Amino acid sequence: MSTHLTVVVLAAGQGTRMKSDLPKVLHTIGARPMLAHVIDSAQFLNPDAIHVVYGHGGERVKERLQDLPVSWVLQSQQLGTGHAVNQAMKEIADSQIVLVLYGDVPLISPATLSRLVDAAKDSSLGLLTAELGDPTGYGRIVRDAAGNITSIVEQKDASPDQLAIAEINTGMLAVNAGQLRDWLSGIDNGNSQGEYYLTDIIALAVESGVRINAISTLDLPEIEGVNNRVQLAELERVFQQRQAKRLMLEGVTLRDPARFDLRGSLKVGRDVEIDIGVIIEGEVKIGDRCYIGPNCILKDVVLGSDVRVEANSILDSSTLGNHCLIGPFARLRPECQLADDVKVGNFVEVKKSTVDKGSKINHLTYVGDTRMGANVNVGAGTITCNYDGANKHRTVIGDDVFIGSNSQLVAPVTIGDGATIGAGSTITRDTPAGELTLSRGEQKTLKGWKRPVKIKR
Ligand code: UD1
Ligand code: CA
Question: Which residue segments constitute the domains of the chain, with CATH numbers given?
Answer without folding.
Answer: 5-223 (3.90.550.10), 229-437 (2.160.10.10)
